[in-house]
Amino acid sequence: MQRYKCIISYDGSGFSGYQVQPNKRTVQTELEAVLAKMHKGELVKVTGSGRTDAGVHARGQVIHFDSPLPIAESKWENALNSLLPEDIVVRSVKKTSPTFHARFDAVGKEYHYLLQLSSKRDPFLRHFAYQYPYDLNVEAMLEASKYLLGTHDFTSFCSAKTEVVDKVRTIEAIDFNIEKDVLTLRFVGNGFLYNMVRILVGTLIEVGAGKRPAAEIPVILEKKDRCLAGKTAPGHGLYLWQVFYELDT
């Protein structure tokens, strides 16, 4: 039995999220269906670095699975991609340690969120960027983002539905980049809570729109109350960009 580590990309538009859900199309369901076909109907469980919600995309999601098939490492990528639907692609496959775990061994993640700053809809971006047609003060958003850097309890920026008890996380970087009318917000940290990036974005948008001052961010963090932060930004603007591991396993 050999364990494999894969980096996959997917367009989340047609999925109800990454994780298996009854009677719904998910990324994990499609991956396991393909592996079952390759293993003559036998279930091969796929484990991801974390789940993504409905509509959320991934450029660098990491998964692992175990297989007894005597397929050369170099052949796995083509074998999987020949059977997967067009909205999922395997970018790399390599043998890894039998103890490697895509989720528990991750030491950090990078997310991108795309905002289309235009009063006109772009039909080619409708599934891939959140259109915000009003004026935004990006400098104010940048100022607010600086309060989020470092180690904090992010209870206020986490969905109330989460079952995670420890909500302390470290954000190492928040970068802003504008190309034409698309603003990309880049978040890098040691981990992110359920809906955390989307709530951070929603709050920064409210700062940029003048609905709250940048200096309010430390108060929101201190109060640990989800009701004090902004709305959850839509899922279709979010991308799981990269997952980091201590060792190149």
Whole-number mean pLDDT: 96
Q: Kindly state the number of beta strands.
A: 10
Counting DSSP H or I runs of 4 or more residues, the number of helices is: 5
The residue fraction in helices comes out at 10-25%
Major β-sheet profile: 10 strands, mixed
Low-confidence segments: none
Radius of gyration: 19 Å
| Secondary-structure element string | EHEEHEEEHEEEHHE
- Span from first to last CA? 17 Å
Shape: globular
Total tally of structural domains: 2
Could you list some keywords that capture this structure?
single chain; 249 residues; alpha+beta; Alpha-Beta Plaits; 2 domains; ten-stranded mixed β-sheet; 5 helices; 31% strand
Structural overview:
With 249 residues, the chain is of the alpha+beta class. The protein has 2 domains: 2-96, Alpha-Beta Plaits (2-Layer Sandwich); 107-245, 2-Layer Sandwich (Alpha-Beta Plaits), CATH 3.30.70.660. It has helices spanning 27-38, 73-81, 138-148, 196-208, 217-223; strands spanning 2-10, 47-48, 57-67, 88-96, 106-116, 130-131, 150-153, 168-179, 182-189, 238-245. Strands 1, 2, 3, 4, 5, 6, 7, 8, 9 and 10 form a 10-stranded mixed β-sheet that branches. The longest helix has 13 residues, at 196-208. It is globular and about 60 Å long. The two termini are 17 Å apart. The relative contact order is 0.19.
Please outline the helices and strands.
Blueprint: E1 2-10, H1 27-38, E2 47-48, E3 57-67, H2 73-81, E4 88-96, E5 106-116, E6 130-131, H3 138-148, E7 150-153, E8 168-179, E9 182-189, H4 196-208, H5 217-223, E10 238-245
Parallel strand pairs: 3-10, 5-6
Antiparallel strand pairs: 1-3, 1-4, 2-3, 5-9, 5-10, 7-8, 8-9
Helix pairs in contact: 3-4
